[in-house]
Specification:
Blueprint (H helix, E strand, L loop, with lengths): L13 H14 L13 H12 L1 H5 L9 H11 L3 H15 L1 H5 L10 H7 L1 H16 L5 H7 L2 H11 L24 E3 L16 E3 L2 H8 L34 E6 L12 E6 L4 H11 L1 H10 L1 H17 L4 H14 L6 H13 L16
Antiparallel strand pairs: 1-2, 3-4
Helix pairs in contact: 2-9, 4-8, 7-8, 14-16, 15-16
The structure holds zinc ion.
Length: 372
Amino acid sequence: MLFNYRYVNHSIEAFQIYMDHLVKEVWCKATAEFSVDLLHPELREIVLGIYNTEEEKRRGKVKDLPYGPIKKIYDRFKDLDAAQRQQISNWYDYNNDIEALCACDPLKPPATYADIRAIDDNLGEGLKDFCVSLFTDVIHLKAVKSRIGGIDEHYGAFVIENKEGKCPYCGYSDIKGAHHTRREAYDHFPPKGTYPFNSVNFRNLAPMCQECNSAYKLAKNPTRHVDPIRRNTGGTRRRAFYSYATVASGITVTVTLKTKDVTNLLPNDIDLQLTAPGREEEVEAWKDVFGIEERYKAKFCAKNDGKAWLEQIVEEAANGDLTSDQLFAQVCRAAERYPYDSANFLKKPFLAACKAAKIIRTGQADSVCVED
Ligand SMILES: [Zn+2]
């Protein structure tokens, strides 16, 4: 990713505290008959609140006793031995250390649902249904929102702290902000359908633009090399950028054109280098998951992007007071100060490539031209 988000504390994080307690103190210590009194006091109130909310029952959101899935999982844990419980407790910690997960920390190997199923098939399935539904259904219930706030409220706080207005994963699409009545969808970076326990961990949740989220990332797993057969869980681990890192990714975009015919420019005419020294694996994961090469090359070929950037310099150099060198220097200064305004971080290397290919001729204004 091109720049990092700043993490925002919010009351909705209480859900993760309830999960900590549920997994570590209730499920991993399951012995006697299940009782709702075993739950974290606030979660117990929420659970009973859900059960008592007639409206939510009527709308079909509550299909079962609200603690039904919790009890079913509890009963599966009762059959596990001490080593298995400890293993799952460790996996809970590893899967929720999202920064370590993205960094491929060898001391914190995460677990997938397949790992849980290898211990107990029914437990794996039950946990998957439960953890996924926490984000898709439970966190949106009135009984939850009235106590710890909803996703919309979190988004409101998030965009006050993160005002860039651009998607950090592609760098050019808009992200809805404080003055919109709609919001972007949150993505689970390591996917919620692959890793148990972190579906309501907000360090694993980040808004991204519609194109990044719904057209490219989907349920891909950035933290695994792609395995054509087993997909999200099959490949070996790989490092991926962490959305809330405090160190910049340091990505540099370099473009080389293999043609001077920008009018008919095609992706194959463009050599695009995306580099960040020492972060090669993270860059590969980013490119792979978000289709970055395809999208940036398409942008360079588009009439209102690459071609327009070039034509503006050509026309201004021909009709104005500045030479093409001076106009290019302006673009460089803008890219330095405002890299994500008008895709300046792409505009600068594209125009640099046009200069290097002598599509923009340096020197006097009237010598600038587009060759086609
Ligand atoms: Zn995006």
